[in-house]
Amino acid sequence: MNFSEKLVKLRKENKMSQEDLAASLDVSRQSVSKWESGQTYPEMDKLLAICKIFNVTLDSLTNDDVDINNTENKDKNVIDSFFSFVKNTYNFIVNNTLLDNTKCFLVMMFTFLALLILKLPVNLLSNKVTNLITSVSQNDFTIFVANLFEFIFDFAYVALFFIVMIYIFKIGFLDKMDLKKDNDLKFTKEVKESKPIKEKERNDYSFINLFSNILIVFVKFFIACFTFPFLVTLIIFFIGLIIILYFAFNGLTYIGLILISLSTIFLNILTIEFLFDLLFSKKVPFKRMLITLIASLSVFGIGSGLFSIEVSKINYVNSISPKFKTTKSEFNVKMQDNLLIDTNTHYEFVIDNTLDNIKIEVETYPDFVTSHTEYQNYIYRIVLNDYEVNVKKIFDDFLQNLKHNKIYNYDFEDNSIIRIYANEKNINILKNNIEKEYENIKNQTDIIDDINEKYDEIIDKYNELLDNYNTLKEENNTLKEENNSLKEENQKLNDKINIITKTVE
Hints:
- The chain is an alpha/beta fold.
- Helices cover 70% and strands 10% of the residues.
- A four-stranded mixed beta sheet has the order 2-5-9-4. A three-stranded mixed beta sheet has the order 3-7-6. Strands 1-8 form a two-stranded parallel sheet.
- α7 (78-95) crosses α9 (140-183), α8 runs antiparallel to α9 and α12 packs antiparallel against α13.
- Residues 70-76 and 179-205 have low confidence and may be disordered.
């Protein structure tokens, strides 16, 4: 199979017309037609461009004895590609000149720094999303979801970080090294003769070519960076779609949410495809993209309407789900006139005139919260401790309740109850002790505020004195300098007087 036959076969396999190939190579359709009919032969730069477009070696394209279907690129699996990449990287470092290695190092370092700088707005976006999740409800479930989202976000960024680094290194250096090797193979006389002519033409515009290539690299790099948010959003909504389908599998179907996720996924795929078409200079299918865009936006609008209706049916209940049972613990405390009961959650007094001392009842959720007491210096403290939250248990209950259009509060500590049983006299004493404690705290706070004000005044005076001291020090230094100058002048005068005296004598 000769070159013209191989070119026709490759073009048809890649579903490209002569016009498409001509546009990619920046030549006329007639030139492509002449190549395929065997009337003419492309120049070296066009041959290299054809190899890059169809992902074949120059040897397989130009050598009649080599079949393009048996090239390395077609037969390689993932493992072979990996080892080939490692081998080519090693050969690049060992065989290249110091100048080429330095260029590679600088480009990769610039890419590395650019990706690190890009991490700043990405972190800002991630923090805003996690804060939005935790702001809905401060409980262990939302914290877990926020941490999971942050992990997925960071993992996706790190993965894309390495992909971009490897991709830039491959297309910017390794692929060019392979083409350079292919350039050393034996070709026809026509190709050899055309090469120096082309190089001469290119040298006439070397500066312009260099500037344009640098500009293209920068534009493509920023386009590649711009694809990252859409890729992250695609991953997030894909994971969300899996969760929604899991809900549906468990009998909880939200058609609107499914439509929103699907439309968002298609919109992100469409955007990424458009950016990649710009990045790799492919022909952009505007008609198909426009139809897909209109369809996706329509589905998104329908899904948003349905989801609004579905959400409006859900009722929020500010209490713990009935599935989670409570347990009661009782503590007996001897009544004292200066007794103070302290707790880290809300409590209530219950009058029981049959009691001479104090009875404290703590109602908690044993699977999630435990309690213990401390007594020191007439202060009886009740402390609630969180157990490790069983996320699966909460999530299963959440799904079951959501089937009945209910969302319960899962803040177990705040929903724990402390009841203090005592007669009316002791309850009043306890309340007065609490008021006295609050008053003491307020007085102490006022004292601290006064101390802080006085401290600030002292600091201001100190700074003022320090400024005055520095001013006087500067003035003193100035006087010393003037005094030294006067001493020098006086010494000079004395020297002159001595000279005159000696002369007179």
